[in-house]
């Protein structure tokens, strides 16, 4: 599809709101439909279906006009409504690929618009099942399904831990793309890529605000580091040379960290996610004792940085 970048299968494309995901989807869709190289990546031309389920046709035309000076393109089809998977989305997609035998790329923007949540909510099994169902379709018809999704609000040292939902989404997919900005107002973004059929990559991109397209700046060899987490920084300051251990409830810990405007349950979730970063970056081990009251344990194992 896009050699060295995107292949057949089912992939997640994840980013925070307003990070520029939809512009990137429009750019990718146009390049594949027209067979135009994406930066230095060769593109195999094919019919594209873009399910822009949070847009309308007028907005899509304006976006395409600003980006490429056209309001439509051969081999590029838009839809602003679709059934959910439970209602028969896969049947709609099947009808499209049977009509368009050269279909190569289908974009679903966003996952939330086509999924359903049963009584079990967003469990690992339900997340795994929904992506597995999409993957069965992409494998059967040898197309690429690119599913746009959002990041969780809870930060993590590992970009791929920031995918909203459970690990079942990434576990069933062929790969994922994570688009992040250090600041929301930045023109630059980091695109982390991991997949079964290509080496892991990290690209630095720059947004052209005039044309609303993403330009390639460079490929990073070193992983881009998340900015320091204020919570972990505060815990690092809490454990001094004279007091290298702490134990208590999440509520009691918050009293020791007055600048942290968090609820106790949110604090516990953040620490559960960030425990490896706490150890790797600060040399502090984190534990969670079950009992009448759940106690958090913090212990410095390495000298303070």
Strand order of the largest sheet: 3-2-4-5-1-6-7-8-9
Low-pLDDT runs: 156-160
The shape is elongated
N-to-C terminal Cα separation, in Å? 47 Å
Say which CATH homologous superfamily of the largest domain is assigned. Answer: P-loop containing nucleotide triphosphate hydrolases
Helix and strand content put the structural class at alpha/beta
User: What kind of sheet is the major sheet?
Assistant: 9 strands, mixed
Strand fraction equals 15-25%
Structural Rg: 22 Å
Tell me what you see in this structure:
This protein has 305 residues and is of the alpha/beta class. It folds into 2 domains: 211 residues, P-loop containing nucleotide triphosphate hydrolases (Rossmann fold), CATH 3.40.50.300; 71 residues, Phenylalanyl-tRNA Synthetase, Chain B, domain 1. Helices cover 31% and strands 25% of the residues. It has 8 helices and 12 strands. Strands 3-2-4-5-1-6-7-8-9 form a 9-stranded mixed β-sheet. It has a 3-stranded antiparallel β-sheet with strand order 10-12-11. β11 and β12 form a beta hairpin. It is elongated and about 70 Å long. About 2% of the residues have low confidence.
Features:
305 residues, alpha/beta, Rossmann fold, Phenylalanyl-tRNA Synthetase, Chain B, domain 1, 2 domains, 9-stranded mixed beta sheet, 8 helices, 12 strands
Q: TL;DR?
A:
The protein has 8 helices and 12 strands. With 305 residues, it is of the alpha/beta class.
Question: Secondary-structure map with pairings?
Answer:
Layout: E1 9-15, H1 21-34, E2 47-52, H2 57-68, E3 76-79, H3 89-99, E4 103-109, H4 124-141, E5 144-150, H5 168-172, E6 175-180, E7 188-195, E8 201-208, E9 213-219, H6 230-238, E10 245-248, H7 250-256, H8 264-282, E11 284-289, E12 295-300
Parallel strand pairs: 1-5, 1-6, 2-3, 2-4, 4-5
Antiparallel strand pairs: 6-7, 7-8, 8-9, 10-12, 11-12
